Amino acid sequence: MAYSVGQNVPLTFGDRLRLAREALCKSKGVRITQGDIAVSIGVQRNTVSRWENGGMLPKDPNIVAELARVLGVSSDWLIGGIVSGRDRDVSSSVDEEPGTYRVRLSATEDLPTAVADHIFRYLERLSIHGCSKSQIAEAEAFMVYAIQHTLTLKPFHKRELDEIHADVDFAWDFVVSVMRRSGIRV
């Protein structure tokens, strides 16, 4: 699962670090500098600059973990581009190769981790089978909407995880039937 910018050029650690910092800036609505990141993790500003520019990599796994925490991404993504269901969508300018998808946390961030991961696995299948980004985004929105329905008398936050997972599965069945009518076998 590698993300790339432009013509099949894989992202480096520095690229992912910069994209995550820029995405954090956008989400917070403030300018977050390399110096701000450096202060947050206890290193020099020029160290963060060298990481972003590809001059060097952090050698301490604790520093990578702290960077990931500060930036709101997983260490796996920061190091190797491996995506988990809880990674923030770090940049809309990052083109994804077929077979990769990252859940937008705007839709899933308030969900229990197990539920967000359940949705992520389904979205990953759509990506693998060649669905477009807009189809995947619609499927995600539909599944999130489906689990937050008000047909039941219990509010979402008081429902059991099994009930929520069943609603995700029901929404997935609907998504699959729509895709099949479009000629996509998932």
What does this structure look like?
It is a single chain. The chain is mainly alpha-helical. It has helices at 13-28, 34-41, 45-52, 61-71, 75-80, 105-108, 113-128, 133-147, 161-181; strands at residues 3-5, 9-10, 95-96. Strand 1 and strand 2 form a beta hairpin. Helix 2 crosses helix 3, helix 7 (113-128) packs antiparallel against helix 8 and helix 8 runs antiparallel to helix 9. Mean pLDDT is 77; it is low at 1-9 and 85-106.
- Widest β-sheet, arrangement of strands: 2-1-3
The count of β-strands is 3
Gyration radius from CA atoms, angstroms: 18 Å
Tally of alpha and pi helices: 9
Q: Give the averaged pLDDT, no decimals.
A: 77
Helical content class: 55-70%
Q: Main β-sheet, in a few words?
A: 3 strands, antiparallel
Task: Tell me the structural class.
Answer: mainly alpha
Query: Proportion of β residues?
Result: under 5%
Shape: elongated
> What distance separates the N and C termini?
19 Å
Provide the low-confidence segments as ranges. 1-9, 85-106
Q: What order do the helices and strands follow? A: EEHHHHHEHHHH
